[in-house]
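Hi team,

Below is the intake form for tRNA(Ile)-lysidine synthase from Bermanella marisrubri. Please confirm the fields before the structure is written into the shared record.

FORM ID: S-0412
PROTEIN: tRNA(Ile)-lysidine synthase
ORGANISM: Bermanella marisrubri
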Amino acid sequence: MSKTNIKDALDTALLPLIQCGNIQRLYVGLSGGIDSVVLLFLCKQFVEYHHSSVELHGIHVNHGLSEFADQWQQHVEGLCEAWSIPLVSHRVELEQKGSIEEVARNARYDAFKRSLDDQDVLVLGHHQDDQVETMMQRLMRGSGLSGLLSMNVARTLDLGNNKQAIILRPLLSTTKKQIEQYANDHQLKYVQDDSNLDTQFDRNFWRLQVLPLIENRYPQYRQSVQASLNALQEEQSCLQFFLQQALEKVLLSDASLAISVLQQYPKFIQQQIIRYWLQFNEIFPLPTQSQLDTIFDEVIAAREDAEPRFHWQTHSLARYRNGLFLLNDSLFPVDHNDLPEVWRGELLDLSFVLLQQSPAKETGLKPDQYKIVWGNPGQSIRPLGRPSKTYKKLMQEANIPPWQRPHWPVLTARGQVAAVPGICVCEGFSQVKGWQIQLKFKLNKK
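The structure came back. Fields below:
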């Protein structure tokens, strides 16, 4: 690949995003190594050539893993200063558990999220060799189709609060040798990470010992692997098309899966629907095959009144009646002391639920100042036009799962229950075209 073609690879990936007019900031993940330095240089040329108003920034994460980490940061700072590019630097502390590669990656992405805002673009320097190495590693772990697809040129990165950034990897069709040639042609200065020679790390083992042997026997292996990845991507797109149709049939209005409908499919399709549902909700890592088997045996196949739950990572799958629910365990228990003294209808974030009022088209809640308390099984409630009943009975009739009932907001005034949001308005507190109380449950802390 010539120098022009490397530039074209960036233009092809980046120019459509810039031309849409929504992108204001472009961040380059900058370790100081050859890949990221070449990428920063390419992005600098891109902004200058296209006279773009997009702001170009570097973003560096100092993991502190190497004795040279501070020197690398100084090199990056000097490079950005010489090229007049603003730099954001993060120094992170890594937890001493699990794979150090995985821990470092998670810390790096957490740092990225702290710097990025809605519609920002984060450009990373992964190339074709990285793509092959990632696929080989995941193949050894027994990954399925979605895992083997490794990295995409573009994907979204959830930032919380309904904000998303875009991650762009424009050099996935570029080999390491081509990047090295480009750096030499432009006399770019970069740092050498000493850990890249340590074969105790899986990626280095593949890069330094296994893949050179494959290349000796199959010189075109990169192109062959890329062709396989392209074919797998087409098959994945086809699979997702049909899974989306199946999910729409199985998904209930409360975001749970209808088990009776799910079980109409063969078990292997049920598993794919559940995986797709979890991916749709950005739940990673997905359950392993062994964990899926447990979910089917102990949760889905359980009696409707058993209320089983399966925990993994920070989430769990729970059954209530005919529904399979996805729960974020970190949202429970809710701090019952963290409630406002008075609620006047404003948007209120109660950890796992958002509460807000809007004008009712017909009869709603009388506008007033209300106190919020949490549901109590013995509370006496008199829904508008209906007999009095306990809170527990009301929630059972409304098909509310047991784990939500203790954390359900209840509006009171003058010592009486005025409304149970999403369920009923009570006698004595209604008004034509009053408030409609909107209740939105959250799966994640966003």
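SUMMARY LINE: The chain has a mean pLDDT of 90.

Thanks, M.
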